[in-house]
Structures are given as C-alpha cells and as structure tokens.
Amino acid sequence: MVMDTTQMNRRTALKAGLVGCAGIPFSASVQADPRAAPAGGQDPYRGLKVGVASYSLRHFSFNDVLTMMPKLGVRYITLKDMHLPMDSTPAQRQEVRKKLEASGLVLMGGGVIYTKNDLAEIRQAFEYARDAGMPTIVASPDPDSLDILDKMVQEYNIRVAIHNHGPGDEKYPSPLDVMKLVRNHDKRIGLCPDLGHTARLGQDPVKIIQQCSDRIYDMHLKDVTAASPNGENIELGKGVIDIVGVLRTLLKMGYPYHLALEYEINPEDPLPGMKECFGYVRGALAAIP
Length: 289
Hints:
Number of helices: 11
Strand content: 15-25%
Structural class: alpha/beta
Shape: globular
Distance between the termini: 22 Å
Radius of gyration: 18 Å
Order of helices and strands: HHEHEHEHEHEHEHHEEEHEH
Oligomer: single chain
Number of strands: 10
C-alpha cells in the first residue's frame, strides 16, 4: 500500500521538524567537517544524507545555488547539467568542485545523465564525474550499454545509479526493471529509485526499497497526488507516498548514500516548498522510534 499508515499526521511531523532544528544554525554546521553532526551533537536527519537534486533549482545559476543551499539547511547535493554543463572543461569542473567545498557542501553525484551505447560518450560522462569529484553518476543509459558500463565503473571506480522514470519510460519504468538488467553486472552499477515515478506505477516505494536495498546508490525523494500515471508532484506528506515508512526503512538499513529531494513544483520560487519538505522530513525522523 502506498498511503502512509502511521499514526503521525502531517501537522505533528512539521511541528517536530521545526522544534528539532531549533538552535542549530546551518552556517555553523557547514564550516566543520560535513560528515560530522551539527553543532551540539544533534543531527535532525539521524545520519541520513538528506540533500538536494539541483534540478529542483533549475531556473537558477550555480552561484545562486550556492547561496540558496544554506537557506534549506542541508549540505548534500547532486548537480544537474544546467549547473555544470556536460561540455565543461576539466578546469571548469574542478572550479565548481572547489566552490562547493568552500561552501561546506558535499557533492554526491551528477545527473540525470543520458547516454547511448557509445564508448566515447560514456567515457566522457565518467571523465566529467571524475573531474568534478562525483562518486556517483545518476544515469539513464541505453540498456544495451551495460557491458561498457561494467568496464567504466572498474576503470574509474565511480558508481552508476540508474534512474527510473515511471509510466511512459520505455527503458526503465520501475526500479525493478533496473534490477533485472543490472543483477549480473558489476556491483557498482545500481539504482536511483525515483519515489514519485515508482508510485505513479502503482508500486509501493517502501517495498521497492526493501527489494533493491543492496543496489541503491542514490534516491529521489518525492510525493505525488495519486498512485496512478496522472499523479502530480506535491510537497512531502501531502500526497499518497508513505514518506514515514520510507524514512523508517532507510534508517533500519543504514542507508549511506544520497537521499535527494527532487522538487519539481514552482520552479521560479521553489524555496518555500522545499523548506516545507525538509521540515516534514525532520519531523518524521524525530517521531520515528
């Protein structure tokens, strides 16, 4: 079942999120080792690497993103190509890397990156990731290119997390479709389940996460209005996805990779809705035993 069956309602989660974050200024926490807990030893995300897929901020420049991230209270980020173009030079990629580090942000990956069954094109994507310091490529590769990906992940030691796009995606509608294809390939080739697209297939994201747990290297956190193809994006906790169940599952499995909010609503003014989403996550985590 996709609906949240817990007893905690949205108001309780949001209230807990606001209270749990009181007195923990983001600016203070990001100046230290980003792997450490925030000031006072409190971590409102309980060890989960909650952050942003920069597609959420797609109408803004990279420098804008640097100024917007502290307002969201998270430090982890995956870059989309409008913030670091695929045809950038190695020097430009390294400059972006330096700016992220100077801002106290942690680059978790890049994508979604689309590639065909072409060695030169795929190698260029891996060099892009290597130069920028990305440990993971969130990808939508040609299914026939997995043998090439095997060689690339071995050569560059960079993970690939294949993203599903739900109804209408001829390659990877569901994370389960990805699992079928990657099962016999290098373990570094895995998944980036998109919870919204998965729910729009009528599948339960919690069960999907449990089934695919050993191959999930990134995740796009969303909520949708309906568990059907016409479901639309909505702020976390307002839709049909069991966000509390997702978070409980990730805590239980000790999920160590990026949990990235991909916020596709109000692209001209996304911060209020994104703040609301992160508040809901903090509240949900505070209420989970």
